[in-house]
Write a structure and sequence with these properties.
single chain, twelve-stranded antiparallel barrel, 20 strands, globular, mainly beta, 0% helix, three-stranded antiparallel beta sheet
Length: 287
């Protein structure tokens, strides 16, 4: 659950679609449970050999290899006075490494934290909202976005006997970027959606399809009072993967995804990994 914005002299580029790391059952959440804790480790690697220009054509330029991770701790709880509603608070630390143009760098990126709340209209479905703040901090300046961001989205999940469908729809709203001695910029709002459709092939194995979409509004140069050229972008990716439910406390999800449409953005040619471990409390197999 992270979005990094990299500002170059000509454009602002998103390195990945927001929340693209999620797997199936990401929002298949319980209600009326005892408090418990979860650790989740996400990871992805992207070999972007091409770049989408303003007409949506892929060009063999601006290639790079990036690896990123998200280490997430979540505390789940309920209130007796608010039955049938679940709550969670998350703390997420991002990690990043990039290899491009003969240079490489890496380190810890911004920290992301915030709550989520949901309810179940019926025993098969879940609907809720989540909102997170991303800090303007990192161990290296090049990984530091230099501004605060809010990531808010609606989330949903529906379970059939043999299939599952879930996802989110949200936006990333950023504050103004102020860097001493440089122009002041305001990043445009990014809208995104992440959908997962899975087949419950067995109690342990669950193959799935994914679709991720993001549209970033362009940057605005406040100092010059004009928009930054070629700074808006969009991307759509499709992917396939599987979820391995090792036991009620531990599961692993892997996936491959590739861009099918884009504009002013490096292509996605990525593999994803997710590990979930439940520490204590109520056990549920789909987180």
């Amino acid at each position: 659950m992270v979005v990094f914005w990299l500002l170059s002299s000509a454009s602002a580029e998103a390195s990945d679609i927001t929340f693209a790391v999620i797997g199936p059952h990401e929002y298949d959440l319980p209600v009326d449970f005892k408090p418990f804790n979860v650790f989740v480790q996400y990871g992805d690697g992207n070999a972007a050999g091409n770049y989408y220009d303003g007409q949506g054509a892929r060009k063999p330029e601006r290639g790079s290899h990036t690896w990123s991770g998200l280490s997430k701790y979540v505390h789940f709880w309920t209130f007796d006075s608010i039955p049938h509603v679940g709550f969670a608070y998350e703390v997420i630390q991002t990690e990043s490494y990039r290899l491009a143009d003969g240079t490489n760098y890496g380190g810890l990126g911004p920290t992301i934290t915030g709550p989520a709340v949901w309810f179940k209209p019926n025993e098969h479905s879940t609907f809720g909202i989540q909102t997170f703040m991303q800090t303007p901090s990192a161990t290296r300046k090049v990984l530091n976005p230099q501004y605060w961001s809010n990531l808010s989205s609606f989330m949903f999940d529906y379970e059939w006997k043999h299939f599952s469908f879930g996802g989110d729809l949200g936006a990333v709203v950023a504050s103004t970027m102020h860097v001493r001695g440089e122009h002041s910029y305001h990043p445009g709002t990014a809208f995104h959606s992440n959908l997962r459709f899975s087949w419950k092939a067995s109690r342990r194995w669950e193959p799935f399809f994914s679709m991720d979409w993001q549209n970033n509004a362009g940057w605005h140069d406040n100092t010059l009072g004009r928009s930054v050229a070629d700074s808006s972008s969009r991307e759509v990716t499709l992917g396939v993967g599987f979820m391995w439910k090792i036991n009620p406390r531990l599961n692993i999800t892997t996936r491959y995804a590739h861009s099918v449409d884009g504009r002013y953005v490096p292509e996605t040619n990525a593999y994803y990994f997710k590990l979930v471990y439940l520490f204590e409390g109520a056990l549920f197999s789909h987180y």
